[in-house]
Amino acid sequence: AVAKAVKAAGGKVKAVTxxxxxxxxxxxxxxxxxxxxxxxxxxxxxxxxxxxxxTDIDHADCILVxxxxxxASQPVLGYRIMRARNRGAKVVLAADGDNKTAExxxxxxxxxxxxxxxxxxxxxxxxxxxFGAGVSAAAAKKLADFxxxxxxxx
Length: 154
Known about the structure:
Helix content: 25-40%
Oligomer: single chain
Structural class: alpha/beta
Low-confidence stretches: 39-43
């Protein structure tokens, strides 16, 4: 009944969400209602590659979290990182300010130390980068240099 009423609104349905909503959830909303969607949070740097998937975390031996706090803002992702850490994956955090994901990190760096964080992950066989809105354009360039080595996603 709700779907019929929304469709009857003639395409005037919109959704505003936060980073806590999964891409799959937003796609289902758009498909079901033919609606537009937007985010209240800062946009991610579109120049960064997104060649990874959530399941890559399950096989990662090193996870670099850059400019993000998935344990606080993306519970599904945070849980996957926690499971990976519990099975032996190294977690490296590069972020400024309070960050709940620091609880899981083997090593922590400020964003200014991103080059050191990347170096800390370079020997890994299956590294994954999880990046967020805290990644500046300069930091994005540093991460993009490792696109061939790292699986990356936001």
